[in-house]
Write the structure tokens for this entry.
Amino acid sequence: DIVMTQSPDSLAVSLGERATINCKSSQSVLYSSNNKNYLAWYQQKPGQPPKLLIYWASTRESGVPDRFSGSGSGTDFTLTISSLQAEDVAIYYCQQYYSSYTFGQGTKLEIK
Amino acid sequence: QVQLQESGPGLVKPSETLSLTCAVSGYSISSGYSWGWIRQPPGQGLEWIGTFSQNGNTYYNPSLMSRVTISVATSKNQFSLRLNSVTAADTALYYCARHRLVVVVAATMGAFDIWGQGTMVTVSS
């Protein structure tokens, strides 16, 4: 199994500031035949199902604000929220879909 | 607008079988996409259980494979999960979800783009 490890486990950021969440996979999720990283990011608010934010490591899902961006390749990835809004308080998960489907443990994002 | 809705018993006894159904509206599941189940124990993270692929195959989490069956009822536009020999460790919020790729592309069905609201299942005597 590919193990996904996120850091930090929790994060407190001031409104309007940048939030950065990291995700590391135990093996590369870059598929050589199409040069795509099989990595997604989700946002989960209390009492709600996860919401897809980013797929192919850096492609924003339709309707997702452009303050959310994804970057990275191979085994190291980052989700960045450029200017934190109150509604961004949530738990964020990364997920690989290169070999089966596994999720990171989650990062809880709060307002400082 | 595609919507998914899980249903099934909220309480299952240890050693018995958990059975859930996911009703899909707004799209015919026989037309494409792959459809999966994910669970989330209370206060914990997400675990993929398995997927029914648009190519007719089913894929399961290796850690659950011996106990899981996913089936599809295209006439009812729904798919189902059966998990047998349950224990307290199977207590979780169970979600059904759609993979975002219409067809399998480069060996993947893609991330999960549409989710149901989830249904809580407790395993207890």
Remarks:
- Chain A is about 0% helix and 50% strand.
- Chain A touches chain B at residues 1, 31, 33-34, 36, 38, 40, 42, 48-52, 55, 61, 93, 95, 97-98, 100-106 (CB under 8 Å).
- The mean pLDDT of chain A is 97.
- The longest strand of chain A covers residues 19-25.
